[in-house]
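Work through what follows:
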Amino acid sequence: MNYIQIKLRAGKEESLLRFHPWVFSGAIQSMSGQPDEGDVVEVIDSRGEFLGRGHYQIGSIAVRILTFEPRDIDLDFYKERLRAALEVRRSIGLLDGDYNDTCRLVHGEGDYLPGLVIDLYGRTAVMQAHAPGMHYARRLLAQALQEVMGGAVQNIFYKSETTLPYKAQLDASNEYLLGGSADDIAVERGLKFHVDWLKGQKTGFFVDQRDNRALLERYARGRSVLNMFCYTGGFSFAAMRGGAKLVHSVDSSSKAIDLTNKNVELNFPNDGRHRAFAEDAFKFLEHAGSDYDLIILDPPAFAKHKNVLRNALQGYRKLNAAALEKIASGGILFTFSCSQVVSKNDFRLAVFSAAAQTRRKVRILHQLAQPADHPVNIYHPEGEYLKGLVLYVE
């Protein structure tokens, strides 16, 4: 197969020789033709030596490298990548029958498939493209996924309307590429939950907090829990199983609150310990009492681009200060940032500033990150996006 070649400027091959999977537009010297968005192209250095093949797109990141070997990007290639990703999840015990049938199967660069996310919810796989190349390959990917997973996956839902670059003008539609089942119940660590992959945020559930929910469950016994930005209530029903004496869930979205109530009822029917509130987080904290001794702050990304980083850090400081003002003495605060452009040090400094502002005595008990099914490619540290702190507050 003939590929359009993209030649780099002298010295710009260094990052690829270190296996970093991105080629930036400023590194390009010339092209042997004009590729369309999503085309597979071949990248060579200034001397014409092969460097890799990947998907081309217009923008700052011009090529996302799929392979550093001279091989075709075809069905067999995708099957090989998916098998390797599946083996990782099986080896760490994530797909364990009735106890856990939920995980992230593909995490972009972390699984050597940049621009692609696949989450498994029982017998349904939700596929999400973040780059035009993966959008155009979606049906080939669905075929590869079927062949690799066999009967374990009976539905594949493609959900990329809001994740693809708007400049690409791809006019992507969310659709079933296989099946169409309405069975939306999945299991995480023995707890059941409804997944709204049709209209919910991301792929329908935040699977990246599984390990942190397990940790919260250990701290919940006998505590009064406030779960801010609860979305579908994952932390809420983990706290309830952990023995919390009451759990309040808050989200500005009434649809999220409805789903939280459904999920709590699915696991703890007629349990009077739980109440849910559709309200803005800052307004709720403003009039909240000081009876909560376990608070979770898991907001959506405050910063998706570096040009809003300063405002995002101010937002994290303000939010954490509001929670630290309210939490009872001896309370525990779980606080998170899922903004990739916010570094661990930036986030920690924002929380430190909030603690200093409130003049509370605060100890760090845990420093948290994304789980093993969201692996970070060692050559692509940008893949480390989730960071969290567990704080003890006097």
Summary: The radius of gyration is 22 Å. The chain is about 30% helix and 25% strand. The CA atoms of residues 70 and 309 lie 39 Å apart. The domain at 206-393 is CATH 3.40.50.150 (Rossmann fold).
